[in-house]
């Protein structure tokens, strides 16, 4: 029965890939494990992602992966270790998409998220899915501070191009390239992320 439940989980339509591989060089300690809401930044993002119906969650780790996997200690997510995390964001996106296609080759869409947007909620993820379905657009990107960024949803037709990203390229390359196929979805406070001790102090003060 347990095996069926596990297999069934990965037949879900939406894969949520949380990118948590960086070494937080500007912060000087793993931002993924910063205390937040009686939890941690990463755990908060994961717990909100797990509330999305008909989805499964992949966490891409890299630097400090042992610490992070031990801290999360959750059976209902899949960890994917990116040994090439130092090569930039693209390597984690590629790793996440490959893992997603292994778990569910028929997956319809994915959402790429980062671990340091403290105000991300289940509704942010659900709004992306809703707007993509409503508008039939292949990309649904979060809008804040006059830019489009994460979390961002991609239809499966973009998976191959995501797999071809290199170096410091992130999903923004595709958002710009296929602007006519993008719907923007407001994410209030999406501009707040944690890169420095000052950012973190503001968050918890």
From TrEMBL:
Keyword Transferase among UniProt keywords: yes
Transmembrane segments: none
Keyword vocabulary terms for this entry: Transferase
Domain MobA-like NTP transferase: start-end pairs: 17-180
Single GO MF descriptor: transferase activity
Gene3D superfamilies named among the record's database cross-references: Spore Coat Polysaccharide Biosynthesis Protein SpsA, Chain A
Amino-acid biosynthesis as UniProt keyword: no
InterPro entries: MobA-like_NTP_Trfase, Nucleotide-diphossugar_trans
Name by which UniProt lists this protein: NTP transferase domain-containing protein
């Amino acid at each position: 029965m347990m095996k069926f439940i596990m297999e069934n989980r990965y037949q879900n339509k939406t894969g949520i890939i949380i990118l948590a591989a960086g070494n937080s060089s500007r912060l000087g300690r793993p931002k993924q494990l910063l205390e937040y809401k009686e939890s941690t930044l990463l755990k908060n993002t994961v717990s909100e992602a797990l509330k999305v119906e008909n989805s499964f969650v992949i966490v891409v780790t890299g630097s400090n992966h042992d610490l992070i996997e031990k801290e999360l200690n959750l059976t209902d997510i899949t960890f994917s270790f990116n040994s090439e995390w130092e090569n930039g964001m693209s390597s984690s996106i590629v790793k996440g998409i490959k893992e997603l296609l292994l778990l569910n080759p028929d997956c319809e869409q994915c959402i790429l998220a980062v671990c340091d947007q403290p105000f991300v909620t289940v509704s942010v993820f659900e709004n992306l899915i809703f707007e993509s379905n409503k508008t039939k657009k292949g990309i649904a990107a979060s809008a804040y501070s006059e830019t489009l960024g994460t979390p961002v949803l991609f239809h499966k037709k973009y998976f191959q191009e995501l797999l071809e990203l290199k170096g410091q390229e992130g999903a923004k390359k595709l958002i710009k390239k296929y602007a006519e196929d993008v719907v923007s979805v407001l994410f209030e406070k999406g501009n707040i992320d944690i890169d420095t001790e000052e950012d973190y102090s503001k968050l918890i003060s």
